[in-house]
Amino acid sequence: MEPASPARLYASVAGALLLVLGIVGFFYDASFSALDDLEPALGVLEVNAWFNLLYVLTGALGLLVAGVASRQYSLVMGLLYTLLAIFGLGTGWLHLVIGLLGLAAVAATPKPARTKAKRRRSKPRAKPAAKRA
Q1: For residue 7, is pLDDT > 80?
Q2: What are 120-125's contacts with CB under 8 Å, separation 24+?
Q3: CB distance 99 to 84 below 8 Å
Q4: Whole-angstrom Cα distance, residue 106 to residue 115?
Q5: What is the mean pLDDT of residues 1-20?
Q6: Which residues are CB-neighbours of 21 under 8 A, at least 6 positions away?
Q7: pTM of the full predicted structure?
């Protein structure tokens, strides 16, 4: 398990938020129509079934990998959600916040030190001493 880090916190919190947002979003719109056909939800969000599914999957993934691969999760989600915001898909401000926080979590989390496995070289066995008579 990874030690506590900004990436692990991001994976846990963003994962939980996205999972809840995706589930709640299905109550507002569960139609798999065009990506730009969005319904208002909770007064500040725009959702459709495609984004709800994305939120549920990425949220569940974040909760699953928070203890083992949180830095990688933060990087991938940071890039994905930042790109979604740049291309104007979904709720732009939400995607931008999630994306930039993911990239910030990666930047604030040091890379784990790689340990090189020491190769054991087998030493030749000493030859038994010849018996003297």
Answers
A1: yes
A2: none
A3: yes
A4: 21
A5: 92
A6: 45, 52, 55, 59
A7: 0.80
Question: What's the token pair of residue 102?
Answer: 């993911």
**pLDDT tens-digit profile of 72-85?**
999 999 999 999 99
> In this predicted model, what pLDDT tens digit does every residue of 54-108 receive, in sequence order?
999 999 999 999 999 999 999 999 999 999 999 988 888 999 999 999 999 999 9
Q: Which residues of 6-43 are buried (b: 16+ CB within 10 A; e: fewer)?
A: bbbbbbbebbeebbebbeebbebbeeeeeeeebeebee
CA distance linking residue 77 with residue 89, whole number of Å: 15
Q: How far apart are CA 53 and CA 59, in angstroms?
A: 10
Find where tokens 């001493």 sit: 129
34 backbone dihedrals φ, ψ, rounded to 5°: -60, 150
* Nearest Cα residue to 90 out of 70, 73, 99: 99
